[in-house]
Amino acid sequence: MSTVQKIKGFADMFSPESDAFTFMEGVGREVFGSYGYTELRTPILERTELFKRSIGDETDVVQKEMYTFDDRKGRSLTMRPEATAGVMRAYIEANVHAQEQVAKLFTFGPMFRYERPQKGRMRQFHQINCECLGPDEPYADAEVILMLMTFLTRIGLTELSLEINSLGCRECRPQYNAALKAFFAGLDAGALCEDCRRRMETNPLRVLDCKVPGCKALTKDAPTIVEHTCAVCTDHHAKVLAVLDRAAIPYVQNVRLVRGLDYYNRTTFEVVSGSIGAQASVAGGGRYDGLIRQLGGPDVPGVGFACGMERLALMLGERTVAQPDFFIAILDPAGLETALMLAQTLRTAGRTGETAFAAKSMKAQMRQAGRKNARKVLIIGGDELANGTVVVKDMASGEQAVVPVADIAAHV
Ligand code: HAM
């Protein structure tokens, strides 16, 4: 009979990838908690309008990548392509701003984008997402970046580069848009892709984010935002960079970093890895003043980021695989119950490990212990059963000792 297979771009996650996820979530909770963040869980399904109004109608995410469908009553729903929009909706709906001047919220979970799957790019992927709502000061941006870099260091990833830019604000962006339009007008528009020919007029910044190679080449000498940012944005950016300098966090200023979502202004940043192939951006974020108001909420500014967990897991590899303390091998079927009880005692004493359920050959059981990566193998044979002892074998050194059952916890 034919079997049912998973959907393209969706994955089952066994160990060690699932271990890496558990590990990242654990470290995330600790690190974000130490900065005053609490967890918010929002639904996976939201009204389609939420994403159109926040991420932006002209973005690839909204135009090409959303899983959108009508429910049984004909309402258009979308499986969240990112977490920020849902967090904003929840913040507005629960009227959080009336209770908290600053709300710091983290979210873990699956996101959905209909992109072409490849290494590090999935249709269902997972983000670790953090948002700091309330402050408009550059110190909030700086703290968010410090927290992201602390988290990445704590999970053991240091070979990463931080790219940063400012996208200006509602005061200075119009001048920049005008400069971009003037630049595009001087190009052979026919050489741009169809989307960009439209975006040139509707949302010129999006042209700079186009992934089509021809568009990338044509826009390589486009004017940069730094030449157009207002005094307030320039000062804001300088203050963010000053904190990074003081914290000795290396960064690269990338004037082409426009990000793929429309809601950003002022600070934008990405963390890029040199070791996981083409899908190199492991985290991205920035400031989005005006987004909450645009969604019908109060005029509360915000800044945040999201990490792609699959990409971080690719970098972590097998580094996070847990190593059990013991594996119990039984050579005499009369020892099966004793083994089970011994394993129970060890787990109560805080050790981790497993026991064989059948007295198979020594070779087969040692192979099983090796596959489990156990630190120690405890061997129970006929002699040991008779004497109330266990042979303890250290798998790294190969050394063996005969230990009374009562003393076993001290040897594992
Ligand atoms: P984003 O840059 O679209 O930002 O996504 C953040 C991260 O999610 C990316 O850097 C990448 O690691 C991961 N990611 C995105 N798409 C995929 C995919 N198809 N497969 C695997 N990983 C992927 C946002 O989503 C913003 N909401 C971040 C943010 C929060 N800005 C402010 N607050």
In DSSP terms, counting alpha (H) and pi (I) runs of 4 or more, how many helices?
Answer: 16
Overall average pLDDT: 95
Helix content: 25-40%
- Provide the CATH topology of the largest domain: BirA Bifunctional Protein, domain 2
Taking pLDDT < 50 over at least 5 consecutive residues as the criterion, the unreliable ranges are none
Distance between the termini: 47 Å
Quickly count the domains.
2
Strand order of the largest sheet: 1-5-6-11-10-9-7-8
Q: What fraction of residues sit in β-strands? A: 15-25%
Give the class-level CATH name of the largest domain: Alpha Beta
Question: What form results from the Cα inertia axes?
Answer: elongated
Known CATH architecture of the largest domain? 2-Layer Sandwich
Extended strand count: 16
Helix-strand category = alpha+beta
Radius of gyration: 27 Å
Biggest β-sheet description: 8 strands, mixed
Which small-molecule species are bound to the chains here? histidyl-adenosine monophosphate
CATH superfamily of the largest domain: Bira Bifunctional Protein, Domain 2
